[in-house]
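Q:
Got a chain?
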Amino acid sequence: MEVNTTERQVEKVIEAVDAQNKWRKLECINLIASENVMSPLATKLYASDFMHRYAEGDIAHRHYQGGKYVDEVEGLAVELVKRLFNTTFTDLRPLSGSMANLACFKALTEIGGVLFTLSVPCGAHISHQNFGSVGIVGGKVKPYPFDIERMNIDVDATIRQVKKEKPDLLVFGGSVFLFPNPLKELREVADELGIRIMYDAAHVLGLIAGKIFQDPLREGADVVSSSTHKTLPGPQGGLIFTNDEELFERLKTAVFPGIVSNHHCHRIPALCITLLEMQKYGEEYANNIVRNAQKLAGALVERGFKVLAESYGFTQSHQVLLDVSSLGGGRKVAKDLEKANIIVNKNLLPWDPLTSKENPSGIRIGVQEMTRFGMAYNEMDQIAEFMEKILIKGKNPHHKKEEVISFRKDFITPKFCFQNVEI
C-alpha cells in the first residue's frame, strides 16, 4: 500500500533531523567561529512549556497573566549576567546579537548619525554596516583605519580621524575578533568629544566571562551588546548590559516595544544553566579555548599555512584567520574540508574587495566548540595534520572523512558543564 504523502513528509523531516544530529554532533570537527553547543542539561530545559508562552513587558510587570515562573527564571538570569560581567543593568529580551545591536543603534544614534566601525573585510559584523542594522535606523558608517599586521584598529590614525569627523558613536567588536580592541586608548578622545562607545561582544562573551579577554565596561564602553551562543555556549539569543541607568531606559524602550514583542521564553532556562556553568567552569573553559586557538595556529604555520598576525601571537581569542588564496581561495578550501567533515567558513580578509565575498582570500576558524567537547593540544595538532593532508598534500578529502569520524568518537560529550543532573 502506498504511504500517505503527509506521513512520508513527516518521516523525511525526522530523518533529516536525526541525520543532522549524528553528522554535526558526532562525526564532524566543527570549527565555525560563531557556533557552540549547550550542555545536556541546558538542552533538556530548552524544550519546555516556556516555549508556548508570552511574557511581554518587564519582569513582574507583564502585559499577560501566567508569567510567575518566567519571572522567576528570568530574574535569576539577570542576576547572573550582572554577577558575571560586573554590570548594573541588563536586558535579555533581544532574540539575537543582531537585534541587540539594532536596539543599541536605535538608542544611541539619530537619523543621519555617523558611526565608526570596522569595514567588513577588516572584520565587522554585517549588522554594523549601512546595509545592515545601521541602515535600518538611518545611520552612516565610516570605517576605522586598520593595522593589517596587528589585525586591529590603528589607534593613532583613528584618533586623528575621530577628531576630524566627530562621529556620534564608536562601535567595537566584530565577526573577526582576534585581539582585544583599543577601548582604553580611544576612551579619552571619546570623552573629549562627547562620543558614546558600544562594544559588540558576541564572539568573545564567554572569554570575557572567563576573565581572559578584556573587560569592556571597565575599559570604556558605555554599553555591551552580545549574542549568547558563541564562546558563551548558551541558546541562540541576545542580550545588552550597561552601568548607565539613563541609557538603559532608552535601550529598554528600543528593545520593547521597539524590536521585540514576546522574547521566546524557552531560551531563558537554558541561558540560566549556561550562566551558572560559566560561573563555575568559565575561567578554565576560556583559558583552554585561547590556548587551543594559539596551538592550532602554530601547528598550521609549521605545516606551511599562512596564518595572519603571526608576529603578534596569532590570536588572543577563539579565532584563527588563514590566508588560503594560494590554495584556491576560501570557497574552495571550505568545500574541500567539508568533504572530510571539517567545517569552517570562507572569510574576507582586509585586502579583499566586498565583490570577492563568494570566494575570498581567507577562512575563519574557531576552536570553542571542539574545546567544549574536550579537545586540547594534541587534538589541535591532529586537526592541523588533517588540514595539511587535504589542502597542501592534496589527499582526497573523501578518503580522510572516515579518519575524521573515527577521531571524533572520543569527543562527543560536552565538558565544562554540570554532569549527571536528572530532571
User: Anything to note?
Assistant: The CA atoms of residues 22 and 223 lie 39 Å apart.
